[in-house]
């Protein structure tokens, strides 16, 4: 590894016995012979991928610059080519990443001296491109026929209740509820999709996911013909679940960075980050007026923030277990997860000013938690997903147990129960009018029910499978 070579022992020069902690302050440490051995694929690409590609890819090229390939670097952005072969001192990229306060990576800590030296050395050595296709873009393989049914990670019903979209590993599968048309498969370049959702106006289908430690990705499809309308990469890690804004112009999703990411459908509009949690944000829901977000995360917290400025309005609750799913109506926020106790939070009371009682040394903050927490019936197992109807009057809850329960959100009373479902259920969705329910199971099945009466309309494994473990029943 070249990196080892770079830690040159120069205890003598420093006049100290400690040769372990030598930093690469001196460019001369890199000999021409060493520079010629720097590999783009092994040494330079990982630096760009880790520190730059969050903002510089073909699908999200800040400053008009993509750093996907050496050819992209040579093309450069508005300022022209990023480097001149063999001439690091005349290369724009060196300007940007070195100096007192390096301009790039923007708003992030400067690259270490060793990393700057690797890039400099690579350019000095002739900027040889030894990349292979797979180092720049991991190839996501979507099998024509799966050996075993892939788990359904997320599900959504179109507002008219006629189409179901299911996330199966790297692809979205569109199922026609009312006909026997074969499911349509929409591939993505995500390693794993975590969320699919029709926009409230029915015009878009979003697919959210990414590749761990590489990038988060969002696709917007046209649900009519399955064409990709736009896609973009966000950050360095997989994105989690979330929801469309009520006006269908943006989607809010969770991130491993503890932030809710608000991603406009318009790819030219900036992504907004609301860093509210100390751990992964696993789900995000909008209030129906589009003014607030409810977020839940691995840090066990449920939070409410303002869309206008991202301000935290209330840490509504702290669970004993992670919060994997949140939902919201005009009056209540709901959060659930591994703790089987389920709570509704009355927004008006939760958000009314946190006052102080008493005076002087006796002053104490008013904790009105008891007033706004409305306990619901507990669930038989871990809750894995919740879904609401478009008017938010119904809430469906499913998880690691063989039933789906449907509640009225205003009084939190159960109105329906669908039993004998193929547990665990990863994903649950209601149609806009609350008439149909779709579920996606860990064993790869998709089922569609009528909420009232619980009639099974369709049950299938939506992708071709060589060894189906369940019999496929249609209708
Ligand atoms: C957080 C986002 C972000 C990150 C991370 C980032 N950049 Fe940038 N970069 C930008 C933006 C935005 C611009 C457009 C100019 C500006 O606003 O400063 C830009 C412009 C540039 C330009 C000038 C392009 C031109 O031709 O005008 C270069 C070169 C560049 N970035 C290199 C890098 C490198 C190399 C890294 C990683 C070490 C990096 N950037 C990381 C956001 C980022």
Structure description:
With 475 residues, the protein is mostly beta strands. 13% of the residues lie in helices and 37% in strands. The strands form 9 sheets. The chain has a 4-stranded antiparallel β-sheet with strand order 3-4-5-6, with no helix packed on it. Strands 7-8-9-10 form a 4-stranded antiparallel β-sheet, with no helix packed on it. A hairpin with a 3-residue loop joins strand 16 (292-297) and strand 17. Helix 4 (40-51) packs across helix 7. It is globular. Residues 1-28 and 471-475 have low confidence and may be disordered. Bound molecules: heme C (HEC). Heme C (HEC) binds next to helix 6.
Quick take:
With 475 residues, the protein is mainly β.
